[in-house]
Amino acid sequence: MSKKNEHDGLDLRGTLISVLAVGIIIIVMWVAVYMMYVAR
C-alpha cells in the first residue's frame, strides 16, 4: 500500500510542475503583449 501512496505523490508533483509551467508561459505572454502595447 505504501507504493500506491508514493506513486500518487509523484503524479501530484508532476501535475503541479505542469500547471506552474503553463501558468508561467501565460504570464510571460501577457507581459510581452503589455510591453508591446506600452511601446506604441
Question: Which descriptors apply to this entry?
Answer:
single chain; 40 residues; mainly alpha; 1 helix; 0% strand; rod-shaped
Task: Please tell me about this protein's structure.
The protein is mostly helical. It has one domain. Helix content is 95%, strand content 0%. The longest helix has 38 residues, at 2-39. The protein starts with a helix and ends with a helix. The model has no long low-confidence stretch (mean pLDDT 85).
Write the layout of secondary structure elements.
Layout: H1 2-39
Please summarize what this structure is:
By secondary structure, the protein is mostly helical. Helix content is 95%, strand content 0%.
Order of helices and strands: H
Strand tally: 0
> Main sheet?
none
Cα Rg: 18 Å
- Portion in strands: under 5%
How far from one another are the termini?
60 Å
Runs in which pLDDT lies below 50 for 5 or more consecutive residues are: none
